[in-house]
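Sarcosine oxidase subunit delta, pasting as requested.
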Amino acid sequence: MRIACPHCGPRGVDEFSYLGDATVTRPTDPADLDGFAAYVHERRNPAGRHRELWQHALGCQSWLVVTRDTRTHAIEAVEAARDVALARAGGES
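Structure tokens follow.
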């Protein structure tokens, strides 16, 4: 599998570290213990299209959101994680 880093170009997957589900969001209320327990311990295991967090560990060190099909490993999109986070926050910097 090759991942097209937006900064370095296509690289082998051995240069990257998989860091988990990119759709999980941290609870905003610190008193929500059930929410934090679910945030830390509960993860989906989807078959199909999935957004994942990767780091280009042996390259530019950038954090990436990779959209790929977990059944075929076909990569649909690679985005800088910062851009995804800013879009989620409504474009604030």
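Note for the archive: Residues 2-88 form a domain with the Folate-binding fold fold (CATH 3.30.2270.10).
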